[in-house]
Design a protein that fits this description.
This protein has eleven helices and nine strands. The protein is α+β, with helices and mostly antiparallel strands and about 270 residues long. The chain folds into two domains: about 120 residues, L-fuculose-1-phosphate Aldolase; about 130 residues, L-fuculose-1-phosphate Aldolase. The structure holds Dihydroxyacetone and zinc ion (ZN).
Length: about 270
């Protein structure tokens, strides 16, 4: 059996959480990440017949029975993952009943997965239907995107169009745009269902006055997706109060579509 502390999926979680903390997005216990793992790869590091303990999830994830995820722990700080992954992360498998998580590794201090597990697993189910290669759901509190939800309409077409105009490459990175949820109580099945529903048409879902969810094939791609939207929000906040002399027009956005062979969300460009 190989040493789990050298597993690429543990290394990537350590590096990604450290990087996100450094970006200032994940204060205290803010943010959470789940990554769908390959069972064969995990079996090189862990005995899949050895369940440390079982933890009820409180919702039905039948579509994910037998699937294994590495997930950040509830109440845990991204800042601390790099030094103590076994306490701050856990590897869970969705049990045969669809409503129980089997702990295979981690949460060493008796802890459990993030309180946002419903939003994560429901979003995994939705994104896997859209893209079988989706592996990552990432939630974080990027400063400028969050600030923007206080001063910009939450209409998702308008929100997206504002960001597409802030940096030339935005429309190339997220042609599907951002969907937006109004403020809701976090950590509930309701916000989980609403988030997953929004994930059918976009890989980015903003939570008004809270943060953002991103989905992608790997941690790098998902981080980059959120990073690009966050950069655009930062530009917006720098210029929103100043007279606008220049912009990127819809005509120019169409030229980017043609050149980079991407298709903007239907009806979101004039
Ligand atoms: O895990 O970010 O939304 C802390 C949060 C909850
Ligand atoms: Zn949050």
């Amino acid at each position: 059996m190989k040493d789990i502390f050298t597993a690429p999926f543990v290394e990537e979680m350590k590096n990604t959480t450290a990087n996100m903390y450094r970006m200032g997005w994940d204060e205290r216990n803010g943010g959470n990440i789940s990554v769908l793992l390959d069972n064969d790869e995990v079996s090189e590091y862990l005995d899949l017949n050895h369940v440390i303990r079982t933890i009820p999830t409180g919702f039905d994830a039948t579509a994910l029975i037998g699937k294994i995820f590495i997930v950040t722990g509830t109440g845990k700080y991204f800042k601390n993952v790099i030094d103590d992954p076994e306490t701050n992360l856990g590897i869970i498998r969705i049990a045969e009943d669809g409503t129980t998580a089997e702990l295979l590794w981690g949460y060493k201090d008796g802890g459990k997965f993030t309180s946002e597990l419903p939003a994560h697993l429901m979003s995994h189910i939705t994104r896997l239907e859209v893209n079988p290669n989706n592996r990552v759901i990432m939630h974080t509190h990027p400063t400028n995107l969050l600030a923007m939800t206080y001063v910009h309409t939450l209409d998702e077409r308008e929100f997206t169009r504002t960001l597409w105009r802030m940096c030339t490459e935005c429309i190339v990175v997220f042609p599907d745009g951002l969907n937006v949820l109004p403020w809701m109580v976090c950590g509930t099945n309701e916000i989980g269902e609403a988030t997953a529903e929004k994930m059918t048409t976009a890989r980015l879902v903003v939570w008004g006055q809270h943060g953002i969810y991103g989905a992608g094939a790997d941690l790098d791609e998902t981080f980059g997706l959120i990073e690009t939207a966050e950069k655009a929000a930062e530009l917006y906040l720098k210029i929103a109060h100043l007279p606008r002399v220049n912009t990127i027009s819809d005509e120019q956005l169409h030229l980017l579509e043609d050149h980079f062979k991407v298709k903007a969300r239907e009806g979101w460009l004039d």
